[in-house]
Amino acid sequence: MGESASGTVPDRHPDEHVRLARYGRAFAAVAPGGAAALVARVLTDPDPTMANSAVCEYLDRRAAELLADPGWSAWCRELTGPVAVDDFTARRLREWTLLRAIALDEPWDAEQVLTASNWLQLRLAEESRDAAALAVPAGGGRTRRIRNTAASRSPRPGRPPLSPTQKGPHS
User: Fold this and answer.
1) Neighbours of 3 (CB within 10 A)
2) Which tens digit of pLDDT belongs to each residue from 66-98?
3) Most exposed residue of 31, 51, 75, 171, measured as fewest CB within 10 angstroms of its CB?
4) Which residues of 94-119 are buried (b: 16+ CB within 10 A; e: fewer)?
5) Per-residue pLDDT tens digits for 118-152
C-alpha cells in the first residue's frame, strides 16, 4: 500500500463515524428490493456496534413506515435471513413484529412483552393505546420509568388511554 502525501498509510476502513454516515445515506437511498443485500453487507462491518446502529436506524425508520402496511410481511421475510447473523438486530426485527401485532390487534403474548428489551417496553408504554398491552409493562415492566409511563397512560374508568402526545398526571 502506498503512502499518502502526508507520509501516512491510508486507512482501508475509514473512521466508524464516516462509515455510519455512509451507511445512513445508503439506507436512505436503497430501493426496497435492495435492502436485504445492504443489511447483509453492513452487518459484515469490522465494528459490530456501529453496524448494529446503522441497521437498527434503518429498521426503526422502515418498520415505523410499514407498521400497518400490507407490505410489512414481505419486507420482514426479506430481512429475516440477513439479520439472523446478528442477535441484536434479529431481536429488533422480532420486537417490531410484536409491536405490529399489538398495534393491529393481532394475537400476541404477554410473556413476549415481559421478556422484551427495555426499548420495546418503553416504546409500548409511550405509544400504545391498547389497554391490555399497557397493562403488561405497567405491572411488570423492567424499569420504574417503563412501569410508571405505562400506568399513567393506562385507561381508567371513565378515561380512555392517553394518546402518545398526552402526558399522564405524573409526567
Assistant:
1) 9
2) 999 999 999 999 999 999 999 999 999 999 999
3) 31
4) bbbbbbbebbeeeebeeebbeebeee
5) 999 999 999 999 999 999 999 999 999 999 999 99
